[in-house]
């Protein structure tokens, strides 16, 4: 019980916010508050000063934080070395993914990993690139796969997979008469875009600017936070869009969408693997990192 409370305490001390700590631990805010109250009763002192919405550590809180961090590191090290000794891989693995990767690529990869290591408890968090990057930087997540440019102190960035964005239109659209069109024709048609902060949107806008097309000239009729929603809207004839090639293969085969390329540019990018260099890595994290770099994963993706 005390060990659980220490984990909650560390999350609150790091986030300086009860609701954010609860979210990172997949708990409710009342559950987090209860654990902190239990700790304060156990030690007979106040650990956090709560003034309005600001949370700061008291002197007792600072003392506990120092020891709690050491306890957490020792516990993680013990589990890692015990697993190496026994040959058993288990524990919790928190994976983040930007929307395209999380919805279309990672499910089959994670599914295969769980079959190999059934005692690993995997959680997959999907969001846009900015949100996932933030959760890596604050060490909420162990590892993530994203599709946009990232930067940050102590962040390790490695190539994972090549991608290309393609223009998609409904089969009856007039643009289907030509397999390649000019970027300057895009402004003539209703356009459905990913939300701001999306890696897909960032790549698209950067490529358009390089060839002299201002993204503000796009006739954006709606912004959607899901590629699935965008594909449904385009196939219904509401507009055109630009998405990852990995997301439209099945609908293109079924002739529900048509993919086109542009004369002036190619929307090329890399899916990247990111993790915090200074966050302690369990044996499960190391095994997943190794798995992602294996030929087996590449074969799973290409199927």
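-> sequence recovered:
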């Amino acid at each position: 019980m005390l060990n659980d409370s220490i984990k909650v305490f560390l999350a609150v001390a790091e986030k300086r916010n009860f609701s954010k700590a609860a979210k990172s631990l997949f708990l409710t805010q009342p559950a987090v508050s209860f654990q902190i109250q239990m700790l304060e009763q156990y030690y007979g002192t106040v650990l956090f000063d709560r003034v309005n919405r600001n949370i700061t550590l008291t002197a007792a809180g600072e003392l506990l934080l120092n020891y709690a961090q050491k306890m957490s590191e020792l516990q993680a090290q013990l589990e890692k070395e015990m697993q190496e000794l026994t040959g058993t891989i288990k524990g919790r693995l928190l994976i983040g993914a930007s929307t395209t990767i999380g919805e279309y690529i990672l499910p089959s990869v994670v599914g295969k990993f769980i079959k190999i290591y059934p005692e690993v408890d995997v959680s997959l968090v999907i969001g846009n690139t900015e949100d996932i990057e933030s959760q890596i930087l604050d060490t909420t997540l162990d590892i993530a796969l994203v599709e946009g440019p990232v930067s940050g102190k102590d962040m390790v960035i490695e190539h994972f997979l090549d991608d290309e964005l393609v223009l998609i239109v409904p089969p009856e659209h007039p643009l289907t008469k030509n397999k390649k069109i000019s970027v300057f024709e895009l402004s003539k048609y209703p356009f459905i875009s990913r939300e701001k902060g999306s890696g897909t949107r960032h790549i698209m806008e950067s490529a358009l600017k390089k060839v002299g097309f201002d993204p503000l000239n796009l006739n954006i009729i709606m912004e959607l936070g899901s590629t699935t929603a965008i594909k449904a809207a385009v196939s219904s004839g509401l507009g055109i869009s630009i998405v990852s090639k990995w997301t439209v293969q099945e609908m293109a085969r079924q002739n529900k969408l048509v993919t086109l390329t542009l004369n002036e540019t190619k929307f090329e990018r890399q899916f990247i693997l990111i993790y915090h260099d200074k966050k302690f890595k369990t044996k499960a994290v190391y095994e997943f990192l190794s798995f992602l770099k294996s030929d087996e994963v590449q074969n799973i993706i290409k199927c």
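The first helix runs from residue 2 to 15.
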